[in-house]
Structures are given as C-alpha cells and as structure tokens.
Amino acid sequence: MTEPRIHFFNARLVDPASQFDGSGEVMVAGDKIVAVGPHVRPEPGATRVDCGGHALMPGLIDLHVSTGEPGEEHRETLKTAGKAAVAGGVTTMVLQPDTQTVIDDAALVDFIVRRGRDHSLARVLAAGALTLGLKGERIAEFGLMAEAGAVMFTNSDHPVVSSRTMQRCMAYATAFDVLITSRPEDAFLADGGMMNQGEFASRLGLAGIADVAETIAADRDIQLAQLTGSRLLLDMISCEATLGRIAMARDQGVKIKASVSVHHLTLNESDVGDYRTFAKLAPPLRSEQDRLALVEGVKSGLIDAIVSGHDPRPAEQKRLPFDEAAFGASALETLLPAALILYHEGLIELVELIGALTFGPAQILGLPQGRIAAGTPADLILVDLGFPIRFDASAMLSKSKNSPYDGRTMQGKVKATWVGGKKVYSAAD
Amino acid sequence: MNPQGPSPRAPFPKRHLLQISDLNRLEALELIARAETFLPFTQAREKKLSTLKGRTLVNLFFENSTRTQASFELAGKRMSADTVNMSVKTSSVAKGETLLDTAASLNAMGPDLLVVRHGASGAAQLLARKVGCSVINAGDGTHEHPTQALLDALTLKRSFGQVEGLIIAICGDILHSRVARSNVILLSMLGARVRLIAPPTLMPAQVERWGCEIYHSMRQGLEGVDVVMMLRLQLERMDGVFVPSAREYFRFYGLDARKLAFASKHVKVMHPGPMNRGVEIDSDIADDPRVSLIVDQVESGVAVRMAVLEALASHGANGVQGDD
C-alpha cells in the first residue's frame, strides 16, 4: 500500500533554511516531504491542495510554552494547548518544566512526552528542570531526563541564585552535551518588581525591574558558559544591553543562543497603559528603544528564535490590581499574527522573520523539522498573510484568554495546519 | 624462610614518604621491588620478621580508616616494630593548633616512624617539619595517598608483569580523590597511559594539564583499556551538589558488564575500597575473580607498607644521608 500523498500547488513557498521565498509546489508522502520545486511531478491519487497563492511555510517551532498540566489543568492542558497551537500555526512546542509538579524526573518527562503524543495536535517536546524542584539547589538528573526525551534544561521563571550551582549545572551538562536554558534575571534586583523600571513605572507608582536585572544575570551565565564550555540559550531576553553581550560572547567563541518573546518585539512598556494586567509579563515589556533593538537583533541573527512565552492565566489571576495580578499572557494563537506586524510594517523580510520562528529554533535543538525540504517531516502551515483580523481574546481556543493584543487589528491568518502530513487544523472561512 | 626477611638493600635516600611527586622513577621502582620481596612473607605461615625490632611505629589517624590503619599496623607488627595506634577525633575548631600540639607530644615520645592520616591537604607535610622521625602520609585531605598508589602499581606489576605501556582508566570522583592524584603521578612516571573518566563536576580545574587523557563518557574512555581503576564516590556528593543522584551516577558512570565490554578483553578492575556496590561498581564485576584485582590490592597493601617502613627506617643507615 502506498502512503497517502498530498500535492500542494499554487503556493508561495517560504523556506528560511534555503532562504527561499517564491512560488512553488510541495509533495508530501505519509509524514514526510518528498519533493519540493517550481513544479513537482503529479502523482495519481494524491490529494491536491490549491494554496491559492498563499504562503506555505514550515510549521512554527515555539521553544517556550507553559500549560497547567499536570496540576493546574484549569489553566491549560496539553490538549487545549495543542488545539490553540495548531490554530496559531505552531506545530512543535517545548513545554516548560514549571508546572505544579515540577518536571524534574525522567518519569515526568516521559509523562509529558506521552500525554503530548496522545492528546496534543501539535508535537510536544519537554524541557526538564535545571535543578530539583526548580529550587536552585541541586542538579537535576540531566542524563536520565535526556534519555527520556528532554530537549533542554531550564529553571524557567525561577532564576538559579547560587552561581556555584549554576556553574555545576553547566559543567555537568557538558558530559551529555545538553542545552542549558536560562531566562536571565537577578532574583534580588527583580524581587517585587511589576514592570520595566523607568518613568512609566514611577508615574504609575509600580515597583520597577531594571534592565540591569537582566544584564547582570546574562553576564554571569555567559561567563559560566565560557568557563564550562556549556551550550547556553538565553531565553526571552528583553533589553538592548543584553544584545551587545551576546555579540561579544559569540566573538569569544561562547556557545550561546538567544530567544525573544513576540511580545517584546511588538509591545513596549507604554502598553501597560492604565494598569492593563494583560500586559504584565515576565520579563517586563521594556522601552521602545529596547523593542527596536530586539527587532534589529532578529534581523542580524543575534537572536535565533522568537517564542510565544505562552503562559495561560485564568481571569481570576488577571482581573486583580496590577500588583496582585499574575505575570504572563496566553500567546500561542497570537505568535504568528503578532510577529507578522513586523513584516507588514516593513521592519523585516518575511523569510528572516519566519526563520526565527522555524529554522532558528530547529537549529537550537537539532530538530529535523522547521524547513521545507525533501526528507523532512511534513509540518506545514498555509497562511493568508494579508488577512485582516481584529483580535478577539474571548474567541481564543486556549483555556485562558489573557492576551495583551485583545481588540488589536492585525494581519495574517492560518488557513490550515499539517503535522506529520496530517491535516490537524482548518480555519472556518 | 629466613626470619631476617629479604636480603638487605642499600639505605633508602628519602626520609619521609609524603607524596609520590617527591619520588623519582628509580626510587618508586625501588619501593615496588622491595615490596615484591616482602610478598612471600605475607603469604608464609610464620610471618614474623625481626627487621624493625626495637623501632617504634605510631599510627596517627585523624580520620576513620579500617583497612589502611590495619594494613600499617600489620606491616609494623610483622616486622617486630612496637606499634601504637592513635585515633584522634578531629575537633572542628583549631585543627591546625591541635595537629601541632599533637606533633609536639608525639615528638617527646620519640617514635621512629609516624604514619599519619588527616582530613586536611598538606597535614603530613606540616607534621614532617615538626617531628624528628620519618613521616609516612597515609592520606591527607584531597592531596595524596602515596602508599595506595604504590600498592596499586605492585598489584599491576604482579598481574601484568610491568606497568609500562598499560592503558589505565581512573574513573569516578577525581576531584576529591587523593588516590587518583597519587596514581596519576606514579603510573605516568612508570610509563603507563592514564585516562581520567568522570562527569565534569567531579574533575579538578585544568585537569587537562595533568598529562592524562580526559573523558566524560565511560563508553569512550574505556575503549581498549587494560585496567579500570574505580574510585569511591562519597554518598553526600551524590545528592545534587556534584551529581544529581546515585541512580543517574550508576547509569552513566557506574562500572557494569555493559560498560566494561568496551575495554580490552583481558581488562582488570581495581578499587581502593571501601566500595559502594550499585553506585560506582556492580557486584558482578567486583566479585568476579577473572577481572577483579581488589583482593590482590589488599594483599599488596601490606607488602608495600612493610617495604616503605623498612626503606624509611633504613634512611641514614651506614652514614648515608639522602637528599631530604
């Protein structure tokens, strides 16, 4: 029996791996792409998909997603996150270990991998905890968790305070060549802070988180990565000043990658406005100058990946005074349209932008997907780039509907999503 | 058998045995050769020799030790030395002062040979400067344990005929191991190729300068080795500070049949003891007489200590003064 075939034609192919943005066709057999070109040989019996001139690109790979499973399923489950993901064009997502039951053990990594496989429409990868219980004291079992499928190790939003523990974690990681991920933040400087430190925060009477809280921690982790030879991903950086440090570290041969959340590329501290808790994010939204520098960082390649930072929070955690509201935004469904703001504003080429959402993160993890090439997994999305939307958070598929983009007009809509050659999402026209 | 022991050899040029790095190759070979001549006596029915008759040996142990202390005690008694064991509990305050106070009192008792084990690196050196007798380091902190290295070399010589040319992998907690430090120096000096295998958190800083090959993977590090020397991993170092857990350590760094299969066919396994079975070594290997040299090591231990005591006691005899 031959594998089911899908023939995509009349498409604008966007493949950042080959820097290609032009018309073409794709043939999928089973779960793999088997042919790509201006015209591929038609196969009898193949399902023909007329792309209508819309963009056909690799499914997005999101390196930073949180759900509430296990423990807080009312926030989000792997199933609801999977639905939201494929609707947003995300076909692979890396789950943060900071669930109520911390993912710090091979059996829990296995749980996430299996639950993801069985219940999520998007591919699910697990990040393991860097330290036991995310307490920042004891090295977690990198070796056993990596064997169970963990693709990176991170302490999520709980910075490792002890530099010695961080050093030992990084040193230990080199034995298995696993990726250490750090969202750089000095726990003492950031303690109690609600938004970016500066004029806005002081006028609003909110405690600030200075950008040095990020750069001090980034400096430490870069130096420790240099000392130990560890691979380091600086996750969700938010400041211009951090970019210079990354550039310098790369010049010195430090194996360092960086990611940024889509919020920090498209919003700034003024979006907090009159205490909008949906714009209360970790790290905090920074100044406009920082935002523009981060966009430049994506263009120049200093930043390898754009993430959603999906952090679903139920209304009762957000409809509170700013000081008391939870950090975070539900973002799987806004990742692509929000990122496309940069393209529509002419700040970045489409292929560069999509690169940071697909091939860039794939390179960080060494994944085969994230490109349109023969032999790679058939994770594809069809996107109407110009489709106008007024984003309505209440219509989100995610269980928690906290979005800073609520009511905002954007352009770009995922028309359909395929994961491993299987159509998992189709937009209602 | 001759109750006088093996035929006398030239006086030994060193007064103390504080660290392997104090010895040159000839001196190390001499100690091993001497130890070899004592081996038959350790296996004889009548083991008493009169070599050290009238001499006083003091075993000064600031750290708990069963086998090293027993080994030195037996070595002394078999050579008819008056042997005294002193176990001194280390008080947490003023360690240095206590050590020097002890040294002063000991000196007044006039021992000839002083065996010392202490938890602080350099303690044996300090004592050697303060007492009038020969000092033998039986382990100081994470610095050296020279008689262990000598007995390991003797064990290898008995098993393989010579140490030169052997590929030897030392695996485990290199960072905290005085056994590893002494062995790296001695075995390299004797012409072996030494590999070190450990997770990066248990490797000393700049270990690549030690002249060994460094591995973080047992599979690669054990490829084709003649000898695997396992080190003990203290339980308190397996709780996430240096390595995440005992189970992960055993999975990746514990010696089992699967990993040992990467070594050469005639591979031998050593362990300085005491072993953590199921943490650093699988019982099947530790107890397999075809591969395990662990019992031979203990036997060599007594012979080496006899040789060292005898050699240091001979220092200065016939008016020959060494370069101490």
TrEMBL record, chain A:
Superkingdom, taxonomy of origin: Bacteria
Keyword check for Cell division: no
InterPro entries: Amidohydro_3, DHOase, DHOase/Allantoinase_Hydrolase, DHOase_cat, Metal-dep_hydrolase_composite, Metal_Hydrolase
Residue span, Dihydroorotase catalytic domain: 54-238
Keywords: Pyrimidine biosynthesis, Zinc
CDD domains: DHOase_IIa
Limits of the Amidohydrolase domain: 345-425
PANTHER family named in the record: ALLANTOINASE
Protein name from the UniProt record: Dihydroorotase
Organism, scientific name: Candidatus Phycosocius spiralis
UniProtKB/TrEMBL annotation, chain B:
Entry's EC annotation: 2.1.3.2
Pfam families: OTCace (PF00185), OTCace_N (PF02729)
UniProt-listed InterPro entries: Asp/Orn_carbamoyltranf_P-bd, Asp/Orn_carbamoylTrfase, Asp/Orn_carbamoylTrfase_sf, Asp_carbamoyltransf, Asp_carbamoyltransf_Asp/Orn-bd
Domain Aspartate/ornithine carbamoyltransferase Asp/Orn-binding, first and last residues per copy: 165-311
Catalytic activity field: carbamoyl phosphate + L-aspartate = N-carbamoyl-L-aspartate + phosphate + H(+)
Annotated family: Belongs to the aspartate/ornithine carbamoyltransferase superfamily. ATCase family.
Subunit structure: Heterododecamer (2C3:3R2) of six catalytic PyrB chains organized as two trimers (C3), and six regulatory PyrI chains organized as three dimers (R2).
Protein name, UniProt field: Aspartate carbamoyltransferase
